[in-house]
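Q: How would the C-alpha cells look for this protein?
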Amino acid sequence: MLKESIIEGLQNGKGKSITCIDLRKTSGAVSDFFIICHGESSTQVEGLKKAVYENCFNKCGEKPWHEEGISNAEWILLDYVNIVVHIFHRDTRSFYNLEELWADAKIEEIENV
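A: Here is the predicted structure in C-alpha cell form.
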C-alpha cells in the first residue's frame, strides 16, 4: 500500500520517468525498493516531495523516517525505511544514474498518468 501511495503521489505531482527498483533480491541493498523520478525545476521537485508526503500520510498514516536535500531541491530523498524515494532535478538524475548503479535489480518503468 505504501509503495502504491508513493507512486500515486509522484504521478499526481507530474513526476517524470517514474521508476521502481526492486532491491529485495540484491545483496547489499539498504531497502526493499528505490522509487525514482525527476522534476523539471526546483519548484516541481519540492512539489513532488510534498505530494508524496501528503499522499502517504493521508492514505497510509506514514511519514518518512528521514528526509534529505530539502534545502536545495536538486535531489530530495524520503526514507520510509523499506522504501526510499529519490526525487531529482533532471540534470542531477542523469549525473547520479541510480538505475545503472542498481542494474542487476528488477527495474519497472511506471506509466505517467
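Strands lie at 16-22, 33-39, 66-68, 75-79, 83-89, 106-109.

Residues 28 and 102 are 11 Å apart (CA to CA).

Upvote if useful.
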